[in-house]
Request: fold
Amino acid sequence: MTVYIDNHTFHYETENLVRLFFPDEKIIIEKEIPENTVPPYIYTSMNINDGNAHIYVRVNTEGFDEADVKEIALSDKDFEKTAERTMAVCLYKLLCKLTGTTKPWGILTGVRPIKLFRRLSDKNGKEYAESYFRDKLLVSDEKIRLSAWTEENERKILALSKPMSVSLYISIPFCPSRCSYCSFISQTADRAKKLIAPYFELLCRELECTAEIVRDKKLILESVYIGGGTPTTLSAEQLYILIKTVRDNFDMSGCREFTVEAGRPDTIDEEKLKAISEGRADRISINPQTLNDSVLEVIGRKHTSKQIYDTFALARKMGFAHINTDLIAGLPTDTAESFSATLDGIFSLAPESITVHTLALKRSSRLTLQGHSIGGDSGAAAAKMLELCSERLPKAGYEPYYLYRQSRIEGGLENTGWSKKGFEGIYNVFVMDETHTVIGCGAGAVTKLKNPYGSDLTRIFNYKYPYEYISGFEEILRRKEQVRTFYNELS
Reply:
């Protein structure tokens, strides 16, 4: 689909809105429309005349050619925002008419809708935020209720953060195999076997150097998250050493949560769980994605649903009191009925928290390369699965505590973290809200330095791949010194 941007700067919002309706098409942005252009195309323009801005949107495809025009006074106090939103509404309504569909989040395309809801609430109250979402952004009533409930629970967690608070993310970019929907940079453990030992050694060094900066600047460590990839591709000994490295070098007296994403049950055994337990990590994730064996096979998982039940039982036997589990709505061949059966199984395991993701496919995932598309019937199926979650999870004692969205996500939907009272994953809230600095260690990790007295973010990137991380390690340590410089300048 070609999108023409004429005399306005709303390129980003326009492109993302079109992608909501055409997630599998390549979106081409052009500045000038040829005189004899042929459909399909979308044309957007803004022209100033007589003190008004004239917004014009045309959608021209085979069998559909309609346009909309709106005027905005240049004297509007929020002219740029109003003009951008007005153009988005015009485009959205035409695309809804073209496709015969609506999107539950309306014209909202951002990753963090709850952050926007909170900002509107803080400014003019909750009722104003709800009406703005409904009337200005065209968000559905269901998603408005979800936003309000999530924001209320998030707010309590955000109050825990202090100006000098930080969280720590540790990347283990290895997996036993690559799931068909995955586009992360993690590498299969078999192929990268020779890299794991040197990578692990350098990661511990990076943690030691990072801890020295954190101590020097008197930062308060609020949460730790070891993720990936699949951290339990490491051996039990490596897991123990990794957690011990964190505890030996960082001041843990203010740490409220220590998570290890144990991940796939085919990588978890008693020795590894013992290493995590002895390291006093207090929250683990066991992530089946589905309890449907045929779906597990389709997505390339090398384990069965029975292994998931067995792993949960083992973790409980070893005393883990906070287990999170991840599910994915919209997986290939899954149905609302089989997803509901998965919920039945998950409720029987009674995890303290459940994160419900919606399938999101990047262009590099195997499913995309094999021709799997999102939207249409699969989007409707994913929406039904999320409806089941909204109906059934509260009845089972779970409440939403964080929410985010992704590009090319099935049905334009969302990912939501649900938990029982007192078992919210606070790292998830801090990182999604961009509440405070998150320091990343390991391959692919990004440090986000947050000005505690403003909204500015400064990013420091580690090299993506393990071999780059190993060969460029000294440069990574040099970049880490930017953390010290950042806080020096603040003081």
